[in-house]
Records
---
Amino acid sequence: MIPITLFLPPGEQTDPLVVHVYGAYGISLEGPFEPFTDDLLARGVAVAYCHIRGGGELGPRWHRQATGEYRYRTVEDILACLRQPTWLRGLHLVHPFIDPLATLTDPTSNLASTDLAEYGDPRYDPSIWDLLQRLSPMGCIQELPAQSHRLPRAWIRAAERDARADNDAIHRFCQHYRDA
């Protein structure tokens, strides 16, 4: 069972739905006021927050259940929440970790030091290497032939000098996403 917080716009029967997911570092989705949610609700769009394993909603054990070799559980949880992922019409990615394998194998990456504890070390563990290669958004999108899939629209938010995201990877991902 994956907790989901659902916000519905007033008076709407059938709504488009934006799904917000975060499952890493033991951080909960609950937090400061999010004007993005209010804006969507005002436009008649429902918003769902999926509290998947890896996040902090259900404590440290919930977080540990999706770290290292168990990182795949975040994807399982997302799919369990969505049920019908083919219905997706849009993505909103905020500071996304697009290419974990490249980041964790790059000794000069400023992100690698904090992420090794969360994801495991692919440099020394072949099972982590394989897992990250399968789960990598960059790896998945690069495998799609050009113009082969109708993908949902994507909105990616990251700052130009974002310490939490690899902007080069985001730019490359965006190009592959557009091509696919």
---
Amino acid sequence: MKIALTLSGGGYRGIAHIGVLKALEEAGVTPEGIAGTSAGSVVGALHAYGVSTGDMLDFFKSIQLLSFGNYAFGKPGWVDPESFYDRFLEILPEDDFSALKIPIQVTATNILNGELKVFSKGPLIRAILASAAFPGFFAPVEIGKGYYVDGGVLNNFPADLLRDQADFQIGVYVNPFEPTDKSKIKHSISVLERVLKIKTASDSIKKFPLCDLLVYPKEMSRFSTFLEKDLDTIFQLGYQEAKECLETASDKIQEL
């Protein structure tokens, strides 16, 4: 494998991944393998299937997380990830990893045994829904004998999955960590989000050296994980940062 691409989790900040993909396409850079977590798994799967960046952006804009029909009645969470299955089936009509043009590895956390699960074959949509099921907000997704939540709990930046198989690895990290103010911790979800951000930042930063090129869009900290606005701005931040990073690494990439 010449080029691998790792896409981190980050909720709606994952829209920046779409901007990065647009920059990669314009530069003629095509990954031969993808690893993704949470939002990164969703964007990665859409790209691997062949969905255009424009259609991806429209897809994310069309999803209403807090629509009444998405509530997790009788399940441990506010929103039921499986309520989005039919919507995903419209854009991924062949619901299987084997339908992808680029192989992808998707991480999720089995809360029954506390182990990381890496999905790479079989049904696709439920795997990416599980990978993106932020605990406490989304209900877990049942797959086989497992009960899965966000892969970011154990591996939010899975740069380790493809490192040994790739000549050159591009990593995209959209989950920045910066000091914050008490006034911004307003409710229980804020506390949970902050705690997970602390943990994932600590684990993820250790994996940055596994990437030959790291795209780390600036200003991501001002965007919320679940806030459905400024998506075009987030897209542009990812696009611009990737273009700048690709310019600095153009010679290395051309050698591949």
---
Amino acid sequence: MPKMKTNRGAAKRFKLKKNAIKRAAAFKNHILTKKSPRRKARLNAPHYVHSTNLDSIRHLLCLQ
């Protein structure tokens, strides 16, 4: 049986941490001039994959 291949798009978007899978926030890429510094700082804060999506993300990252 061949090895499972990691989904490369998912590998670039998610980072595996000790107890969670880290992800980036949406709306932080462009048109930043109209967004307040407070809003941008909150978008910089760490975000994690929701528990309802963990199984599908783990499957994409070949962690099961």
---
Amino acid sequence: MTTIPFRWDQVGSLLRPTALKEAREQFKQGNISKEDLTKVEDQEIIKIIEKQKEVGLLAVTDGEFRRRWWHLDFIAGLNGITVYDFETTAFGLTTEAQGTFVSDKLSFNSAHPFLSHFKFTKEHAGEAIAKQTIPGPNMIYLDSFILSKQYHEKPAYEKKADFIQDLITTYQEAIEAFYAAGCRYLQLDDTSWGGLFDARFRGMIEQNGYDPDELIQEFGDITEAILANKPADLAVTFHFCKGNFQSHWLYDGSYDLIAERLLAITAFDGFFLEFDDERSGSFEPLKNIKDQRVVLGLVTTKTPELESKELLKNRIKEASQYVPLDQLCLSPQCGFSSTHEGNKVSEADQWAKLKLVVEVAKEVWPND
């Protein structure tokens, strides 16, 4: 099988088509049933899978079409999690949002809806590889435990160590369940690592009694533990970006602080890393890579302008000063619709950018 991650790949989420947005609004208003909404989701996912294959992608997703959020829908489906509504200005705009906190002992739900969602994607993927994306474990550790006001007001655990063990077990069981469902390409999206180098978030972490530098090691340990028993023929990748909400970001800072620990996680087959603008910093932290692949997120999903092939090839060449060219791949820096609202790009922009990724990668790595 061709190596995962692929030379030309994608992160996962895609812009929600109008028919799906309208159906979701109709369901929200109580005008159609959950079954009616699912039918629309099914139809649109079948279409989007075919479109991904048309542009030449080897790994296809369901576009995250059944989700409201890229992360929260999965977390909400676990046992011991409570969801709440709030208003946020974190991304530079005021908007309604949702959060989660650990409200009881954490465990995996064997009837988690994402399992049937994946089976549907796999059924319709045909000769393509069905890729499943889920949020990484440290999303729960940081947002639903460390920084959660609700959790600290009424802790569900006497000892942090007990929570961490349950978190690890939950993810080990999730990985086993997806594998049993036929998944052979799983991606952990874990933006929580950004909170460990962003000055504002490091301050918030310290205010809650934690040392962000110690958490770098701990985040790595947790991640390694959940992957300790993964099947040999299951490819698992890691995706990181600095937040992506309607083309706005959340974290500032470079990979310097986290790269040594993060890139030492050899159980990952590859790392999808954001390098689409000057905020990403240099490629130098990539010198910490072992033998995993690095998928360079050079094509932005935040703005509609199409990057030039020359620019992308020059950036790949620059990165190859730190990572052998044979270990490099190309993708957009993030998904196109981390939430159901989507980024400030059109569907035409989206497909043009994905097509560009395929074309440039084929020119840079002609033998793949």
